[in-house]
Design goal:
8 helices; single chain; 169 residues; three-stranded antiparallel beta sheet; mainly alpha; 5 strands
Length: 169
Amino acid sequence: MQAVNLRSFKQKVRHNKKRMKRFLTKIEKKTPRGIDAITISLEKEVWKEVDCLTCANCCKTMTPTYTKADIKRIAAHFKQTPQEFSDKWLVYEKKDKDWQNKKQPCQFLNLKDNKCSIYEIRPADCSGFPHLPKKKMVDYMHVHKQNIEYCPATYKLVEKLEAALEGNV
């Protein structure tokens, strides 16, 4: 496993994201047989190549959505009411009807080692990120289309999926 070079990653994204998004759209429209099993197999390869702690781009450039359960759990950890926690750290996005971080990078990210200070109680959105192995991969294509720009693991999975399905899509 090697460290993620964000500069190199961003350059690759700039050159390949349109092609990759078209590829994912094709899969959405005509799902190849066995894609879920293929994805599970490829995901194992991805994690041998990508070290999240050398990246943390998700925590630096994105914000999770917080469920009511997340807010209640994390607030209790800080000995705050859910309202106090929300007032201090979150903003309610009326358009999406989501609670999100007020700022980026995430207030819980330790920038020295890229570790989450609330890892054990982090929001469900964070614990599932980057949402690679899903029972129905096709239901997450819209998520992968977004995440290829932020997450080297998602980018690598789509790259491997393109190679695995070459000529079948």
